[in-house]
Design goal:
Helix content: 40-55%
Order of helices and strands: EHEHEHHEHEHHHEHEHHHEH
Shape: globular
CATH architecture: Alpha-Beta Barrel
Strand content: 5-15%
Number of helices: 13
Radius of gyration: 18 Å
Number of strands: 8
Number of domains: 1
CATH superfamily: Glycoside hydrolase/deacetylase
Distance between the termini: 24 Å
CATH topology: TIM Barrel
CATH class: Alpha Beta
Largest sheet: 8 strands, parallel
């Protein structure tokens, strides 16, 4: 019998709200996730981080580096003069024009690493970025340099959100978004490898977060044309007032969580000869 191919399934936005975090913990406890990516700049992080520490023995836990939601952990007078991060569209424009305040970003990178490690009592297993901000020029280099300075090479992997063109086209769903992220993060994989960091090979999970769609059917497209170390991102959770005050993605988080906890996920994986695994084990 042919050996099952492995994929990693990562829940983003842990720490965004209590409801989102509790939902992710439920999926972890059910064995339906192999990675969790944590936002650490919000008020939920210290307490919810300690909960994650108790529930994540069988999953990779990473830093969801953030420059577009909430407040920075320290002063950023040029990047966030009002004390609140700018929207992703503005960050992309600044990055493409080479006008990001690099030293302010370096300082915020270190602050978020420090806050992750203070609660989790260890280094992250991987690093990625909220809204894929870590792949942008002007951000990816100082982030990778910070990882190298913390001696994470050989210990942590870096998410590459830019999949191969043929895989994106074969999946079809949300191809425009996937292609845009691929273009914006061009060079990330090469920079990571130059510093000794492994990355995923294959990436999917892009969504328009439309509540009228059947998430199970959407998830099926994520499993098409998987790479050798394929990574699927998801955004499960429970909706609460705290979430509604911060993010427009609400109802679909409940739908994603319901699918993850249902028998349909393991059935879908079995039908395709796929097995959930930690990416840290696949790249070791």
């Amino acid at each position: 019998m042919a050996k099952d191919r492995i994929i990693a399934l990562c829940a983003d936005d842990y720490g965004l709200s209590h409801g989102v975090s509790v939902g992710i913990l439920e999926a972890l406890d059910a064995g339906r996730l192999t990675a969790v990516s944590a936002l650490v700049n919000g008020p939920r992080w210290p307490a919810m981080g300690r909960e994650l520490l108790r529930h994540s023995r069988n999953a990779d836990v990473g830093l969801h580096f953030n420059l577009t939601l909430g407040r920075p952990l320290g002063p950023m007078p040029a990047f966030a003069p009002t004390g609140t991060f700018p929207p992703i569209a503005k960050v992309v424009r600044l990055a493409m024009r080479g006008k990001l305040p690099i030293e302010e970003i370096r300082a915020e990178i270190d602050r978020q690493f420090d806050r992750f490690e203070a609660v989790m009592e260890r280094r992250p297993d991987f690093v990625d970025g909220h809204q894929h901000v870590h792949g942008l020029p002007g951000i990816r280099d100082p982030l990778i340099e910070a990882m190298a300075a913390r001696k994470l090479a050989g210990r942590a992997w870096l998410r590459n959100p830019g999949d191969g063109l043929h895989r994106i086209l074969l999946r079809g769903a949300q191809a425009r978004k996937a292609l845009a992220v691929r273009g914006l993060s061009a060079g990330l994989k090469r920079a990571a490898q130059h510093h000794g960091f492994a990355t995923n090979d294959g990436f999917s999970g892009f969504s328009d977060f439309h509540p009228g769609r059947d998430y199970a059917k959407t998830f099926e497209t994520y499993l098409r044309a998987p790479g050798r170390r394929h990574l699927v991102m998801c955004h499960p959770g429970h909706v609460d007032e705290e979430l509604k005050a911060q993010d427009s993605v609400t109802i679909t988080r409940e739908q994603e969580l319901a699918f993850l906890l249902s028998p349909r996920l393991p059935e879908m994986l079995e039908q395709r000869g796929l097995k959930l695994a930690r990416l840290s084990e696949a790249v070791a």
